[in-house]
UniProtKB/TrEMBL annotation:
Transcription regulation in keyword set: no
Domain of life of the organism encoding this protein: Bacteria
Official protein name in the record: Solute-binding protein family 3/N-terminal domain-containing protein
Keywords: Signal
InterPro entries cross-referenced by the UniProt entry: Solute-binding_3/MltF_N
Gene3D superfamilies per record: Periplasmic binding protein-like II
Residues making up the signal peptide according to the UniProt record: 1-22
Solute-binding protein family 3/N-terminal domain segment(s): 24-245
Taxonomic source organism: Teichococcus deserti
Length: 245
């Protein structure tokens, strides 16, 4: 075989070979947070995106649910190969994938109240319910306006948060709009829960990535994610969980 033929064969093999060997990928997943993660059913916006992007590259996702705060420890121990819903601020020593999911947090009030909330300072003096650990995630400006507010509280049960807003027990709730809408569908259907709401965009979109221990697997996932977006399947997954029903 000529040197040129050998070179062409080698280049062809390099072109067609996957970036990482196909294998099961143990993925650490934190709290169940519909519609992004629905633990009991092993599905959700984020869950499906990651699962299908990996599958496009020949990998099988194996979910491992742990308390979110333990993800760094478990990843360091090698309990998992990757972790969901992380970013560069997470303090993990991993390869961060391209952005695969974006949370959009709002201050939300009843439209009938006509509240003027155009800046963070407009939250002062308001009765507020936010998601658990909101002050850790939403930045120093939000922390400052809520730190001395005795009417500010956080709750892990976001269904209760929604119910309090519609019942007029709080002025404002703070959370991701898709999570808010998801839990609205779990409330009893009534004139009260059908009240229009006003969205106050005080927060920057929160971009999240997958953290991988193996850089080759990270690169492989990115390729699968690109394929998922290009095919239209990415948008279809998001729409299947967020379109009003």
């Amino acid at each position: 075989m000529s040197l040129l033929s050998t070179l062409l064969l080698a280049l062809g093999a390099a072109w067609t070979a996957p970036a990482a060997q196909a294998a099961e990928v143990r993925v650490l997943i934190g709290n169940s947070l519909p519609p992004y993660i629905i633990e009991r059913e092993n599905r959700g916006v984020e869950y499906d995106i990651v699962k299908e992007a990996l599958a496009l590259r020949g990998h099988q996702m194996v979910p491992q649910y742990v308390p979110f705060a333990r993800i760094p420890v478990e990843l360091e121990r090698g309990t998992g190969d990757a972790a969901l819903t992380v970013n560069a601020d997470s303090g993990l020593r991993v390869c961060f994938s391209d952005v695969h999911v974006i949370y959009r947090n709002y201050a939300i009030s009843l439209a009938s109240r006509g509240l003027k909330i155009e800046a963070m300072d407009d939250l002062r003096g308001k009765t507020i319910r936010a998601f658990q650990n909101a002050r850790l995630y939403l930045g120093p400006a939000f922390n400052a306006v809520t730190a001395d507010n005795p009417a500010y509280a956080e709750t892990a049960n976001q269904q209760t948060q929604n119910a309090m807003l519609f019942a007029g027990r709080v002025d404002v709730v703070v959370g991701d709009i898709n999570i808010f809408n998801w839990f609205n569908r779990t409330l009893p259907d009534s004139a009260e829960t059908r009240q229009p709401v006003a969205l106050h965009p005080l927060f920057e979109p929160a971009q999240y990535r997958v953290g991988f221990r193996d850089p080759a697997l990270c690169a492989d996932f990115n390729e699968g994610l690109k394929q998922l977006r290009a095919s239209g399947r990415y948008d279809a997954i998001v729409a299947s969980y967020t379109t009003a029903r």
